[in-house]
Amino acid sequence: MAPSPTGFLHIGGVRTFLFNWLFARGRGGECLLRIENTDTSREVAESVEQIERSLRWLGIDWDGATTFQLDRIERCQQEAERLVEEGAAYEDEGAIRFRMPNDGVTGWDDAVKGRIEFPSEQLEDVVLVRGDGRPTYNFASPVEDWLDGITHVIRGDDHVSNTPKQILILQALGAELPVYAHVPNVFGPDGRKLSKRHGAVSVDEFRAAGYVAPALMNFLALLGWAPDGETTIMSGGELVERFTLEHVGASPATFDYAKLDWMNGVYLRELALDEYAESLLAYLRELGSDWDAQRVRAAAPLVQEKIARLGEFPDFAGFLFHDVEPDPSLLDGTILAAAAEAIAGVESFTADGIEAALRELCDRLGLKPRQAFQPIRVAVTGSKISPGLYESLQLLGRDESLERLRRASGLTGASGSSAR
RNA sequence: GGCCCAUUCGUCUAGUGGCCUAGGACACCGCCCUCUCACGGCGGCGGCACGGGUUCGAAUCCCGUAUGGGCCUCCA
Fold it and tell me: Is the predicted ipTM greater than 0.90, yes or no?
């Protein structure tokens, strides 16, 4: 991976690394994390930490310590000099260039795209080592592949045209060739490279929006790969077990945020209630929330089936933690006053008891539940959309519920009723 | 401009010459369930880019066209 100056780990790069990981883990191989750095600044060190943290959060690991391209600068220089001595490269204004063949073709059997060949005449004599002694990417990368004993290079297909150069360099070096698999990149809905303006693009952003790691991994794996066309929900273990390069598609995939939301909802609903509650709590804490833990846990069952992202919780259930400002035009003084009376008279203040009281209220007023409940819902939750009303009232408690009902009732004016 | 790659419902895909009057999922629409929303259930809409071949037979093979993408840096 290339370190990004902002420290953000782009989701497209994550997906490519995920394919490497799935492939390696599924065949008992090793998976290395190499940073293709061009400098050794502090920013690089920080962005590497960021990359590692994001990867670990997602559930992706790697073997051994993270390595850096620049660590092999001396070895690269030695190899370049050797190539000059052997006539495979030559000096050019302080730099060292590789001598490309004049005729024939250079090709390989790509594990994703099939046979690819480039006419050698298309290949420029690439710079191996710059005038200042630093190796270029196209030299350092194959040298590292060779030194690390890489058997499979799985990378974005923007590297396709670099591959013949690297193959030729590897051959000149006397190295064995790895298998190359070029996976198509991920696009945004407009067919352009996925970027900020399409929505979240970094792992941190998805995390902050309330997506859970297994869902994100599942979704990413299905972007350009499918085991059979039927199965969609798969755990990391199943992914590892079923992943094959043969089933990676050769054409680019579009990132579908709606499908990610659906999938995240599936994962969220599958969690056991206590797991869900703890995830929700941990998520809110990460956001800097100080909402009462016990109440968050108590609210968990009211929202688990209703929200697809943890990030929806504050808007959806925030009324349980702070006061609300209902829209007066959606209120009805008569109904609210009656509701307050009914609530006040409930013997056991439970969802069931509240339901019974409110249903009785509907009968008395000659209203259907959906008609009578809307003003109540708005008065108590501040919104027309909310968790179940009875459960919400119970959690809020009798006193607070009455307080909100009465205050909202006052908002409707002295005349009392003005339902629209 | 040159070279390389890609092209199945709006999206992710299954499909590797007959099982395809092209299957699944998301999205969308309708109905049911229902205190709102959501979940769930049922149903619907919707696709092999186009044109030539090859073959008894093509979404699947070949050629061309179109469209999209990538690379052409002493960037990675």
Answer: yes
pLDDT digits (tens, 9 = 90+) for A48-89: 888 999 999 999 999 999 999 999 999 999 999 999 999 999
Please determine, for residue A125, whether its predicted confidence score (pLDDT) is greater than 60.
yes
Whether A306 sits with its Cβ under 7 A from any strand B atom: the answer reads yes
Rounded Cα distance, A134 and A168, in Å:
20
Q: Distance from residue A70 (CA) to nucleotide B76 (C1'), in Å?
A: 13
pLDDT score recorded for residue A255: 96
Buried b (16+ CB within 10 A) or exposed e, A183-219: bbbbbbeeeeebeeebbbbbbbebbebbbbbbbbbbb
Q: In which element (H, E) is residue A106 found? A: strand A105-110
Question: Which residues numbered 376-405 in chain A sit less than 7 A from strand B, measured from CB?
Answer: 377, 384-391
CA proximity to A11, closest of A286, A232, A221, A262: A221
| pLDDT averaged over every residue in chain A | 93
Give the CA-to-C1' distance from A124 to B72 in angstroms.
9
A259 part of the active site: no
> To the nearest 5 percent, what fractions of chain A are helix, strand and coil?
55, 10, 35
pTM of structure: 0.94
Taking only Cα atoms into account, the Rg of chain A, rounded to an integer number of angstroms, comes to: 30
* DSSP output for A120-188: GGG----EEE-TTSPBPHHHHHHHHHHHTT--EEEEEGGGGGGHHHHHHHHHHHTPPPPEEEEEPPEE-
Residue A91, strand partner residues: A96
Q: Which amino acid is at A405?
A: L
Local confidence band at A413 (pLDDT 50, 70, 90 cut-offs): low
How far apart CA A154 and CA A183 sit, in angstroms, is 7
**Interatomic distance A362 CA / B10 C1' (Å):** 44
Kindly give, in sequence order, each residue whose CB lies less than 8 Å from that of residue A391, ignoring residues fewer than 6 positions away.
A301, A302, A351
Question: How many of the other CB atoms lie within 10 Å of CB of A264?
Answer: 25
